[in-house]
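To close the section, here is one more complete example, presented without commentary so you can practise reading it yourself. The ligand is zinc ion.
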Amino acid sequence: MKVLKIDHLGIAVNSIDDGKKFWTEILGLECEGTETVESQKVTTAFFPVGESEVELLESTSPDGPIAGYLEKKGPGIQHIAFRVEDIEAALRALKEKGVKLIDEKPRHGAGGTKIAFLHPRATGGVLVELCEREGR
Ligand code: ZN
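Output:
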């Protein structure tokens, strides 16, 4: 598998409106737009930073994965996403190595991406997302 770069850092927030103030008003980043991914019960906002991005994640439902994360750990870095060249090939390679996966098959993420999560137990406690973007 080929990891191209850190695509984004996923940060759980109680509210994107409040959570984005530090990133926009203090750091001067610009919001590229928000998107709700119903299957994940999450609204995301992306802030490009050079070659990578900051992704803020706000839960749309009290039983979503971000709501669960906030309840357990509070706001903060929830996952790190690596851009890969071919996500299907990457998942196959990881499976062959016996790496525990949350998603055996890619699902749709924000911005037309294909994403899949690795299990934190396989990564030393870090929730790792792989993502593939068309033409980027
Ligand atoms: Zn992400």
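Once you have examined the tokens, check your reading against these statements. Residues 3-132 form a domain with the 2,3-Dihydroxybiphenyl 1,2-Dioxygenase; domain 1 fold (CATH 3.10.180.10). Residues 8, 10, 55, 79, 81, 129 surround zinc ion (CB under 6 Å).
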